[in-house]
Amino acid sequence: MRTAAGWLDRRLPYVTVASGALGLALTGLGPRTSPIVVALILGGVAVPFAPRVAAVTTIVLVLAGLIGSARLEAIDAGGARLQDHQRIDGRAVLQGRPESGPFGATVEVEMASGIARGGRLVARLRRDERFPAGAKQGTEVRLWGTFHRVAPNPAGNFDYAAHVTRRGLAGALEIERIRVTAARRDGLTGAVDAIRDRAETAIGAGLSPTAAAVAHGMVLGADEAIPQSVRDDFRDSGLAHLLAASGTNVMLLSALALPLLIAVGLPYRGRIAVLLALIALYVPLAGGGPSIQRAGVMGAALLLAVALARPASRWYALGLAACATLALNPRTCAEAGWQLSFAAVAGILLLAPSIRRWLDALPKAVGEGIAITVAATTATAPLLAFHFETISLAGLAANLVALPLVAPIMWLGLLRAAFGQLATWQGPVGVAVGAANELLGAALGPLVDGLVRVAGLFADAPGAQIGLSLRHPVAVAFAYAVMAGCVVATARAVAGLDTTASAAVAYVRRLPRSRRALLLSVAATAVALLLARGLSAPAPPTALTVTFLDVGQGDATLIQHPDGSAVLFDGGPPEGGVARLLRRAGVGRLSALVMTHASRDHHGGLAEVVERVPTEVLLDGGDGTSDRDFRSVVTQARNRGVRTIKAVAPLTFRAGSLRIEVLSPPPRLSGPAPEDPNPRAVVAVVSSDGFDLFLSGDAESEVLLALALPDVEAMKVPHHGSADPGLSDVLSRLRPEVASIPVGENTYGHPAPSTLEALRDAAVPTWRNDRNGSVRLTVEDGGVEVRAERGGAVESEP
Fold this sequence. Notes:
By secondary structure, the chain is of the alpha/beta class. Among the domains are: 2-79, no CATH class; 84-181, CATH 2.40.50.140; 241-314; 495-535; 544-788, Ribonuclease Z/Hydroxyacylglutathione hydrolase-like (Metallo-beta-lactamase, Chain A, 4-Layer Sandwich). The protein contains 27 helices and 22 strands. Strands 13-12-11-10-9-8-21-22 form an eight-stranded mixed beta sheet, with helices on one face. A seven-stranded mixed beta sheet has the order 14-15-16-17-18-19-20. The chain is globular. The termini are far apart.
């Protein structure tokens, strides 16, 4: 007992920061009296054998509870006076960049005037509307709309109301009108906004949209523009942490700046001061999220310890970081990002040194990289299972392969950001800065593209992820306890191997450097060959194949011929990840891309397709639309040398062995496009080797029955299966053998019961994406074989 008390007394600073973090976390997670209750319990237990520690713990817990309560009251004060369905009219400052989603574009705002002044809200536009040009972080806008409290949904996969509360947001503002004013934030935050704008411009200059978005995410934490399919690849490959600013960024920033500071002759204390200033600037520049806050506090604490010639404790720095981040918002501890960030660092501190000792024969940088990767991956696995119900089995290998790319990307991006601050200089200096930035961009682009490729390869690997759900915090705690037991047991089991392992390491170290390099090269080559074999892209199908791709509530149909031809009709919404699905289907090139009409759930995913998949011909079904997103895809295709053809009937087009016959729409008189694009969507029949496929976009029976409809083997049910009184007549004329409904989770009631009934009455076996996933038709020997990702046909449903 005395030994334990003495051990605790010697570590009183650690106990203090741990108590502070615990008190703040308890305030954010439960009743605000929780820290007091826990203080009384812990104090009562500790008093008999460690009175000093008991007193400190009790006092710190109570003080932390009071600080946390005061902070929560300040956070909630701005929106406390707002009522549900209340009209809002006032100026607001955007707290980030608008993000597009399936239910409209959103952005967090802080109200600067009106009844909601001081409140933080999530502002949302109506579906298919966009924020004005120039709306970015720090921009002031005038808003008119209606305020709504977000209803809790604890039973759903994601409780959005809880997320909003943890972010310190009072609720949602449904925007009816928005106007950008001429004002911007002033003071220190305004200066940071200006630095960030120049940095983003410089980092992305000359890069492809995807590469620029990934670079912005890695260097500045600005990941809003990263395509959803790329996000999914990074998530499934275990590389998602690279897209958020974190401890790696702070470490690499210091590693980049320190040699430069030494080179200019700055004294020791001066170098520490400059590094502290750079970290203080970088944290808000990179978005100020929990991960970068933690990294900034830890980095500053360790630098200060070095400057003061005090022992530098990473555990103490981690405790300070927890206190600092929770003091800003005690509810942050419930966020997945906060938990994963701290779990990763704790795992590195606990496990990495032991793992590194077993890798002593490897070069120091390689060994440390592997040790850190293994430790962080292991430590975050239970939390990933809790928050996302999956664990990436490819994460460890993917992180090791990506390791050589991360530091160069960060350093090049940081240098480009620094040069961006000098972009306004005139004369020879400005020219030199511009030239240097172009050279850096020429190196940065291929590195980022390579990282995106690595993420895609590992995301596509068989068994890259497994479903594992830990539904309760107790299950997470139990998982960590089991892992700790396994670590201890493994350490004891291999203790007897230390002599053998040390002898092996010593033998390798005695080898000449050239021989060690040869051994490492052989091992690396063997691993690379194994990875290349396991991660090679799938081959195109050997038979005519039609795939109704699962892109959520949207529409995308892929037709592939054994001669290598591939045609894509539409691409679903941006979040559908159609480019990723094309890659997984073995599509390296598109013979034709058909944009049936201007609708987000049809053309939203095609910008990424045009950027990432070489395309020969684009059939433009825009019908004169002024939709900016649709027109930008067409413009992007033309800029890449893609031949564009107006998709107007009558038109017959060949893509290899595939014949595309456009039946509708007919030409129309010049003038503005119709308000409803659906009736004039492209209706086409794709034919090859005696097989006919009917595709109608969102055109329904009112249009279709006026056309010369042929007998077909397969069809896509029009307009996501919406109610259509004339569908039975359409089916009787087409007489399809198979049908598929392109539909995802939606609020429209698609597919309508009457549509399912018409398909059942016509005895057409029918699949639907929301229940079956992607549906694949293979045409061989005059027959059609249907395979779905899950489930069977639904034609017999009531």
